[in-house]
Amino acid sequence: MCFSIKKVVALMLISAVAAFAKPTIYILATGGTIAGSGSGELSTSYTSGTVTVDKLIAAVPQINEIATIKGEQISQIGSQEMNNEVWLKLAKRVNELLTTGKADGIVITHGTDTMEETAYFLDLVVKSDKPIVMVGAMRNSTSMSADGPLNLFNAVNVAMSKDAVGKGVLVTMNDEIHAAREVTKTNTTAVDTFKSPNTGKIGTVFYGNVKFYMAPVRKHTTNSMFDITKITELPRVDIVYSHANDNADFVNVALKNGAKGIVSAGMGNGNPFPSVLKALNEGAKNGVIVVRDSRVGTGETTRNGEVNDDENGFVASDNLNAQKARVLLMLALTKTTDKAKIQEIFYTH
């Protein structure tokens, strides 16, 4: 009887310790403005990626009080330099940390220029329900009223939140939480630049207080069809931007240089200039996957509108912007070149 009581007490103590154990959050740093430094508080000139992950963590000591923080430097670049190699390296490390149980959540510091693309790529290829949070800053670390420290504090709190489980990759900036598929950068310099124009934000985080109001419904993470375990490179996909009095030169260059896919950011509801339409049609006939998108930035590019997608052999992008359509098309091409199947992927992911 005495042994049983001791055993019960021991189990209760273990449970109590586990209940109060701090979660392990990995901060994976890639560079960007959040890790940038300039010549002074009022200078608009700065260099991205100069601050290392250990210094980013040291600048926000409060995060060590709420979580066991571990940092890794994945890259030190401005996000305008982001490339497929870094994406694959980052995604494989995130998968390793989460699926092996080393991390309870992941925070990725990143430049804002291509944050939405990296977020969507990870949203499609990471195989875990655990929270993954992208965060950055619009003001560098030496700037007056730098927004990076509070953004990072909020991102760690989101990565710790049980309510963030199963919601895919999230972007946390300026007290708001956005789904990776929906978010885009809308202003060159403003701290409230990140918006989800088609759907709105899915939550808020105010000095660490996390609240969710909606959840993404398209396929992501564990129910996404993509697996990059054995992938070492991604197929080339180019974006061609339309304008009045356009010409087909850029389409023809893309085709000549081996593009496997082209995203056409057309006018209005994805409408290309006539000569561009003809060139895209020729590319589609020769096996290049053409996704018809819009330069407008919001709304759905509807299938078979003014352009007959069936006759031209095109895929419609649904409501993805051109840069995210490119991400999805690259991954789709690792699975199939069947246009009907790729169209279905655009409607489900």
Automatic annotation (TrEMBL):
The active site is at 33 (o-isoaspartyl threonine intermediate), 33, 112. Keywords: Hydrolase, Signal. It holds the Pfam family Asparaginase_C. It comes from the Bacteria. Residues 236-346 form the Asparaginase/glutaminase C-terminal domain. The gene is ansB. This is L-asparagine amidohydrolase. InterPro entries: AsnASE_II (IPR004550), Asp/glu_Ase-like_sf (IPR036152), Asparaginase/glutaminase-like (IPR006034), Asparaginase/glutaminase_AS1 (IPR020827), Asparaginase/glutaminase_AS2 (IPR027475), Asparaginase_C (IPR040919), L-asparaginase_C (IPR027473), L-asparaginase_N (IPR027474). Belongs to the asparaginase 1 family. PROSITE patterns: ASN_GLN_ASE_1, ASN_GLN_ASE_2, ASN_GLN_ASE_3. The keyword Signal applies. The lineage of its organism: Bacteria, Pseudomonadati, Campylobacterota, Epsilonproteobacteria, Campylobacterales. It comes from Campylobacter mucosalis CCUG 21559.
